[in-house]
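Hi R.,

As promised, here are both runs. First protein below:
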Amino acid sequence: MLDRTPENFIALKNIEGQHVGIDLPLNQAHFPVPFYQGLEYPPPARGGWNIVHIGLTLPQAHLIFVCPEGCLRGVVLSAAELDLAQRFSTIAVGEENVLEGDMEAQVIEGVSHIIEELPQRPPAVLVYTSCIHQFLGSDIDLIYSQLRQRFPDIDFTDCYMFPIMRKSGPNPVEMMRQQLYSLLTPLPKDQMAVNIIGSDYPLPHDSDLYQLLTRHGFSVHEIGTCQDYAAYKQMAASSVNISILPSAIKAGELLAKNLGQTHVYLPLSFDYGEIEARLAKLCATLQVPYTPDKEAVAQAESALKQAQAVIGQTPIAIDYSAGPRPLSLTRMLLTHGFNVTDVYADAFEVEEQADFDKLQQLKPDLMIHPTEDVQMRVASRKRSEKTLAIGQKAAYFTGSDYFVNIIEGDGMYGLSAITRLAHLMTAAFETPKDTAALIPVKALNWGCSCVL
């Protein structure tokens, strides 16, 4: 049996090459999953978006969760903390429903009752069934066919609260991002309209991506900027969908299949060459010319130089919740003179392979830590020296009040993202935050309020 006591955190690797413990030098890490996947610990850094927040970005839609009461506690808090309980309802599944076998009837009648009691009829309803419905083989198709017959003026889509799917198949966030666009129906295509899909935050107007599109005359549409449900439905008229997060790929594939829209995946990166290659790929798809922006490169370099002059060799810790490419960010900062000492990530995206390999040469003693391993609950969260954290989980595990409060890249993209991040790092280094007050609140990070 493996010794999991605090005195023996650094244990031997298992036969699959995965490490059992809470810290590991990069040169001993296994890609893409460096740590043993077992019993998990959810750290109280709750600022990341979940399936509730994603669903709430659909304007004017009403969300209904059908789950056992224990599961409902978390989702209710997600809506209540954002003061959006008026767009959110629940149906509690009890033991009697399981024993009596009336799961389908409970959903149909419960959803019907909620709709009839709402002060205003919503144009769309997202119904979330849960693990219990799958365990019992509930007839989901029957449920939705009945609801659509009863309420032909409402668009219904099936959403899922399936923690059991976290490690196999599309995970809950991937599935939610996909279903968020499932209510779009075919429209004549506008060749000068483009959608940004699957992002939690609207694309900043100073972003390389936004600037490139608008400079060539394209209109940019995002669910987070739609003022009403009618504007959301118009997204079906766009000719191209752009996704920048791995969890949005399936949404892009669904829209390509259902609506005939072209899907372009442009993963986030902090490498100048990669950024230019992604933008060049987009321009080729749109059949417009691409010219590298040398001024944007100069601005990014200047911002990094100024930030490094302020931050110096202060240790920097980065976690995956700040963005899906922590190793790309780490590599960029290290090559610009910053002292990145720790990365918190349970696994890495496939796009990180080149960064992983390069960092093994550049900084082989870079420490990698899991965030969900059960042993992290008793890991020391005190640092003897000031640490700058990028991401809420890094702030929590290092005990630092000096942190950059961003989630999923904060909508940033391209060279402008590097410039902005350098400014955010400087501000975070100079002005401490109340970490204990900020990170327990769900979706409390830059940009959340403007979307929801």
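And here is the second one, sequence first, then its structure tokens:
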Amino acid sequence: MADFYQNGVVTTMHNLTQRSTEDLEKELISFAKSRPLGLILPSLYSELQGPALSKIVRNLTNVPYLNQIVIGLDRANLQEYQHALSFFDELPQHHRILWNDGPRLQALHKKLDKLGLAPTELGKGRNVWYCMGYVLATERAEAVALHDCDITTYDRQLLARLIYPVANPLLHFEFSKGFYARVANDKLNGRVTRLLVTPLLKALQKVLGYNEYLEYMDSFRYSLSGEFSFRRDVLNDLRIPSDWGLEIGVLSEMHRNYGANRICQVDIADNYDHKHQDVSFESTEAGLSKMSIDITKALFRKLATQGHVINAENLRTIKATYFRIALDYIETYRSDALINGLSLDIHLEEQSVEMFAKNIMEAGELFNANPMQTPFIPSWSRVVSAMPSVLSELKQAVEEDYQEFSGHLKKPTLATA
């Protein structure tokens, strides 16, 4: 049973009654009549080969309230794109696949690149950004959820609870962040959130003093979750980070653009697991090691915009303060694991904290060495201002790919697409 404690500046929506999926969906069907609902699925082609995405699609076939599903497909050749068309064909909702590696979307990408407005890095950030542009272009959904495609414990209730706060017209939320306990296979997971983000936020508050942004970030129970939902108007001015700082960057953008009373977090799952990243103790270019550097840089960038100086002197203090707080948290999590009969590898936990502490210094040095770095993909409002035809060209490219390669699939006209 969840608690009902409100412990931050954003509203927390708990799972107090274990309300049935059918009851939630009945309300969502009603909401969707006046506020059409959509879903974005950023996917690698390799995820079509695993069990998680197949389970997600099977669940989605029974979701009655979605007016649109947008799939962003990365790292796929023509044959793989055609396979993806068949793979997602069982979805009864209107759906389209953005073949990001296809010639049409690549041609549009090159046009944006000439204007200096294209995403510069491959990855989830770029995929999500193009999907958001497509949602704006089609205008089929007024509230949209987004979640990853590697959730092995997926069920329909996760989506229903995730989208509910922005779907219900009686609520005033523009953005909702999903949270859950990262427990699976009798282990306590979620190491980057537990052992990097939470203690780092506490350390930054100790070193820099009270900061509204840090209090806001510390209000989120699982700041690195890949599940969130938003009203469509949010997408115009949202700047998407292109690296592992995506989730932190989106929260930062919401803080910049909206008041805390327009933002909430919602408990979306009792049991959650997905594909795990390697720790990568040996390299800062992969796994949790790279993730920790990108996340820390994202926090430093945001604090710099507020006038805070991150230099060699206070960086050492931040690192030392973080290290002490993080080690104390390990003991806290050990106690929590023991009472719940879960396993926790203390040696691996402390190794991770040592790596994160080292990477905090690395992130600070990288941040100071390249002050002109622009890690954010431009907002869609800026892109449309520079290239007014971009959304119609994006919509047309996706539809032409579908029309040309869908084969036996029913082909609606552009007017209905």
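A quick note on the second one: The CA atoms of residues 203 and 209 lie 10 Å apart. Let me know what you think.

Best,
J.
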